[in-house]
Amino acid sequence: MANDQVEIVPTGAALGAEIRGIDLSKPISDDIFDAIEQAFDTHSVTYFRGQQLDEAQFQDFVCRFGEMQVNFLKRYTIKDRPLILQVSNIKENGEDIGHADAGRVWHSDMSYEWNPPRMSVLYAREVPVSEDGEIKGDTLFASAVQAYDSLSDKMKERCKGLKVVHDVAGRRRNTGTGTQDNAQREAMEKVVHPVIRTHPYTGKKAIYVNMGECVSIEGMKDEEALDLINELAATVIRPEFQYRHKWQVGDVLIWDNCALQHLAAHDFELPLRRMMWRISGCPTKVYE
Question: What integer pLDDT is reported at residue 275 of this predicted model?
Fold first, then answer.
């Protein structure tokens, strides 16, 4: 591939598009990169099939979008590549080498940060495939923008100006999974974001709450707050707002944390192996 043409092919679902004709290991012109970024803003999820990248090539491509962020679970990053988080169920000497519990519930990456990332990028190095050839470990994405647009005028008015508390440890306290990292989660500062955020690049409004991690709303009684949080979170993940990605080795997939929530299907276990490289970044202030 010469990287002089780009083809954008929508998935046909509520969101998402495949970008064809690009080899991410080769130089990409400014014009082509601008087309990639425009497609990303339009479709919220974009992906490239059949890529063959080393650590430097993957990082160089992602960092072209802007400043990337180091995840607080640093034990799972690649040595000398702190931006690349390994998302994997593979163990060495009985210990996880990657973040095996990632994405088990619907969420927006690193919403527990004061300036959470615009984007996350996953590169599929190993994909779990069952004995009968079925690909496991799909990732589901849901549009928080379309969910907001579906709200009644009364609900939009009710949510205006509300601030919700995000606690990264909240949804993990009672799950029984990923417990080896709970002390680090408990040490993280709770942050406050608007219930409804305005996308910093597109200007569209989106619901910015999820079940479990959002634990309260300022100035509201807990029972009322949790009822509202759960109602809004359930709206985001309605089937008509979703796209389900079935992974192939070599996929590089970018998603928009300002516009989406996502969920990883944990429908496999060892000896079926999964290894993804993830980089998240382009910090964005969350505002109404």
Answer: 96
Could you list the mean pLDDT of each consecutive 10-residue stretch along the chain, which spans 288 residues?
Answer: 81 98 95 96 98 97 94 86 94 90 86 91 97 95 98 97 82 48 53 95 95 89 94 97 98 97 93 96 86
* Pairwise CA distance, residues 106 & 142, whole Å: 9
Judged on CB neighbours under 10 Å (0-12, 13-18, 19+), 3 is middle
Candidates 69, 64, 122; CA nearest to 98 is: 122
- Residue partners of 75: CB distance under 8 A and separation at least 6: none
CB 94: neighbour CB atoms within 10 A?
A: 5
Rounded CA-CA distance 49/60 in Å is 18
Decide the pairing of beta strands 214-217 and 163-166: antiparallel
**pLDDT score, position 173:** 44
Domain annotation for the chain: domains and CATH numbers: 7-283 (3.60.130.10)
User: CB neighbours (10 Å) of residue 147?
Assistant: 23
Tell me, rounded to whole angstroms, the distance of Cα 178 from its chain centroid. 18
Q: Which residues of 251-283 are buried (b: 16+ CB within 10 A; e: fewer)?
A: bbbbbbbbbbbbbbebebeeebbbbbbbbbbbb
Q: Cα–Cα distance between 58 and 55 in angstroms, integer? A: 5
Report residue 89 as tokens. 């169920």
The encoded tokens of residue 142 equal 């849901």
116 neighbors 257 (Cβ within 8 angstroms):
yes
Cα–Cα distance, 96 to 76 (Å, whole number): 8
pLDDT at 256: 97
